[in-house]
Amino acid sequence: MFYWLFKQKYFLIKTLNYMVSIKTILFIIFFNYSNVYAVSPINENLIKYRYLVKMLSMTSEVQNDMTLSFELDCTYNALKSEIINVSKNYDSVFNYISMDCSLQSQTYEECFKMLREKLAADGIFPAQFDNLSFSSNTVETELLLKFTNLRNKLRDPEPGDSAEVAYQKAINHMKAGYSYYCQNDYNNSSSEFGQSIEHWKIYYKFNQWNENSISYAIARIRILQGCILVDGENYGVATICFNEAIKLYEQCNDSFWSNYFKIFKAEILYRQNKINEFIAFMDKIKYNKNAPELNEHNEIICRGNLIYEEYRRLSMSNYSIMAGHVQLSRENHIKRIESLKNEPYLDEEYIKKFLKHSEKILEYSSFEIISLSFESNEKYLKLKDHKTASIIECPQWQKIKTTQNNYDSISIKKQPVALITGNKLEFFVGIYSLTGFDPTWDLIGRTIIKGKKVKFKNCGIVSRAENIFIHKFESDEDFTNNQIKVVPLEIEWWQRTFDKNRTKEFSLGKTSHKIYVVRKKIAEPCYWQIVEYTCDWMKDLSPSQLTEDRNIIDAIWKGCSLENLNKLKYRYQYPAFEGEDNGRLPELLKNKRGKCGQWMLFLRHCFYCQGIKNVNTFGTGGDPISFYFIKNFIEGNNNLKCQYYNSLSFIGKKDDEKMPTFSDHALVGYGGKIVNSQYGQTYEGGELFDIVFHKRIVNSSPLIYENTMVENIIDENGSIRPKNPSIQEFLFFCVKPGTIDPVPEKLRLNGVNGNE
């Protein structure tokens, strides 16, 4: 609410009995409102009031006069408004200040400076007034003395309806409000501030303030009332005060303050421990931490910033900060509060008490969640990131803090987790404690999964280093229900404290995770993107259906439909783009386009990550086999190309796109067997899965696939002939899968060098 605007080196009055210079003239009495304003191009009453408040604030006699903070803020805002109004007639203002003014020139110094700054911002630079100077070593002592004496008679206001009476009554109520606050009488404190409003209105109108400046001042009082009532836990009336203040700012078209002071409404939710509502409310506030209006040495602004930093901490699971963005730690806030209390001009009892309430915000929580690690080799499947082709390591959730230019930058690293169905969640939580180990606290976690409450048991501390503690947690039950699915998990963390036979809980915020519940333990790491696809495609299978490999194959194949893959923005790309590495699975997942060899790997990986894997080198069942369908291999001519039927479609095919021609094509087989022939190992029986064209064919004869798919043969001269349906012209050439992600060179065996 208040600004400490005047830390700059103004002339400090050491005593109000300062001897006036011989040039000092007899000034008009402070509240003697003459008709000077009618002929002056600027509001002299406002300038004079602003000058006196400013000068008085720098004297030791008024150290405990908290109303001056309010008056400093409101007069500064009113003067800014006045400058905007008179800037269109600046020549007459400058002439008046330099020649015709009724006050001493130093009284106008701030006004002159602000007007010059306003004109400069508008691109106006009136050089004729560059030599105008002010004597900063003289003070309107008599006027200042009258002003001080008037403020000292607050308990005995003058009778009648005048500016003096209105001012005295307004100050009287304000000082009483501060006094009640220091006595913990919050309701009477707020009432006194409220009663001052009508008297301020009368005084401001005598002062010829415009309506916006009056509304600004009244809104400031309402904000102060609301903060006081929040400290007294009278949240209903506090909300009314905040709402009125915000409405007044909106009427003044002051979008910054109307938005900023919504933070104090959010503080009510925070103090009531309604953390989800608090975060949702704060999400809607457009907060600018670096706005010039925010003076961090102001106790109200400091308190508002504390609330905002608590929001950032509690909502961190959904919040990422750009590098270099200001993030003040709680330790820094404590230091800032202590420094404010030690400032010589903030020595008042009210300031100390007000900041003590702000400090309690930090005392609510001494914990900070910094990491979660899902480590068990028996319960989790190792995952790989296709973007980096690297294995995802623990911790899968981590708060990362870096310091640059004395500011902390916070970001959250989140990685998915694959839990094998039938297991409870087990993980390790890293905690930073400001106060170290304390046996009076505990940490608990809760979540809701499909309407069912799940709790996480704290199994105790497994390690510690200085103020960082690692706790082991386990879910109280298996929430997988032996089903395959993707679970967006959001864990609410609470600090539970035991104090004087009372148990209190305070929210530490949330951590969000993506959990893939998979079918079986797989030895080799799997790409998380494919695990996510297959878990989604298998989510409707019952526990009994999951026991049969055939049901897994059916669900995955349905998920690999052209319609689904098109929705995921994937595309079959042949020939490959020049300069692009299109031979590996990670590139397909990153670029969302690839050749048939990559699509073969994609399908094999889908089967593999859900437990359909190679048990033996070449099995007779339960084995997804990779192989190339090689044209005209029997004749030994590898320069021919085949042309598939134009009626077929493929992944990502556009309406006007022609069917490509190629020398070989990659497929996946399942359920058949490898046999030796004069041409090498080939494949008999089972099923053939051509994911590019989404064709699933029972391999009942050596001719079935080529007759279903191939329409024409193109020789090296470009001549086209129909494929002979009575003759086997192609061979299935099998690839021994050494890994689930073989490099392209391993796919070409026995000298076969296909163009795809």
Briefly characterize the structure.
With 756 residues, the protein is an alpha+beta fold. It has 23 helices and 27 strands.
Explain what the structure shows.
This protein has 756 residues and is an alpha+beta fold. It contains 23 helices and 27 strands. Helix content is 37%, strand content 22%. An 11-stranded mixed β-sheet has the order 2-7-13-12-9-10-11-8-1-5-6.
Q: What proportion of the residues is helical, as a percent range?
A: 25-40%
Q: What ranges have pLDDT less than 50 throughout 5 or more consecutive residues?
A: 1-38, 317-328, 614-623, 631-636, 737-756
How confident overall, as mean pLDDT?
Answer: 76
Please tally the β strands and state the result: 27
Which structural category fits the helices and strands?
alpha+beta
Overall shape: it is elongated
Q: What topology, given as strand order, has the largest sheet? A: 2-7-13-12-9-10-11-8-1-5-6
Helix count equals: 23
The whole-angstrom Rg is 39 Å
Q: What amount of the residues lies in strands?
A: 15-25%
| Major sheet summary line | 11 strands, mixed
N-C termini distance: 70 Å
Topology of this structure?
Elements: H1 36-39, H2 44-56, H3 67-86, H4 90-100, H5 109-121, H6 141-152, H7 163-182, H8 186-206, H9 211-231, H10 235-251, H11 255-260, H12 262-271, H13 275-283, H14 299-314, H15 330-342, H16 349-363, E1 367-373, E2 380-381, E3 383-385, E4 390-391, E5 397-404, E6 407-414, E7 417-420, E8 426-433, E9 441-449, E10 452-465, E11 468-475, E12 485-499, E13 502-518, E14 526-527, H17 528-537, H18 549-559, H19 562-567, E15 571-572, H20 585-591, E16 593-594, H21 596-609, E17 624-631, E18 641-644, E19 661-662, E20 664-670, E21 673-677, E22 680-684, E23 687-690, E24 695-698, H22 704-709, E25 710-714, E26 720-722, E27 730-735, H23 744-747
Parallel strand pairs: 3-14, 7-13, 15-16
Antiparallel strand pairs: 1-5, 1-8, 2-7, 3-4, 5-6, 8-11, 9-10, 9-12, 10-11, 12-13, 17-20, 17-27, 18-19, 18-25, 20-23, 21-22, 23-24, 25-26
Helix pairs in contact: 2-3, 3-5, 3-9, 7-8, 8-9, 9-10, 10-12, 12-13, 14-15, 14-16, 15-16, 17-21
